[in-house]
Amino acid sequence: MSRRGNCHDNAVAESFFQLLKRERVKRKVYLTRDDAKSEVFDYIETFYNNKRKHGFNDLLSPVEYEKRYNERLESV
């Protein structure tokens, strides 16, 4: 949650939840809460972190960006 009077604190979280809703949740009807939990987990762990390209990360997935970042640190 953001600090009082600072709407920019939540920008990253709001952006993520907007993507989650647009790309996964609004396209399906879940029969149970467990189905929804499983689908959200799958979206984050299988697609969002590993495959989805992010503009802020030079169009790399978060996993690939972190891997390259760590390789640069190790080479110094």
Low-confidence stretches: none
Proportion in helices:
55-70%
Number of H/I helices: 3
Q: State the domain count.
A: 1
Q: Rg, please?
A: 16 Å
**Ends: how far apart?**
37 Å
Structural class: mainly alpha
Strand percent estimate: under 5%
Q: Describe the global form.
A: extended
| Assembly annotation | single chain
Tell me about the biggest sheet? none
Order of helices and strands: HHH
Structure description:
The protein is mostly helical. The protein has one domain. The chain has helices at 11-23, 33-48, 62-75. The model has no long low-confidence stretch (mean pLDDT 88).
Topology, pairings included?
Blueprint: H1 11-23, H2 33-48, H3 62-75
Task: Please supply descriptive tags for the structure shown above.
single chain, 76 residues, 57% helix, 0% strand
Condensed summary:
By secondary structure, this protein is mainly alpha-helical.
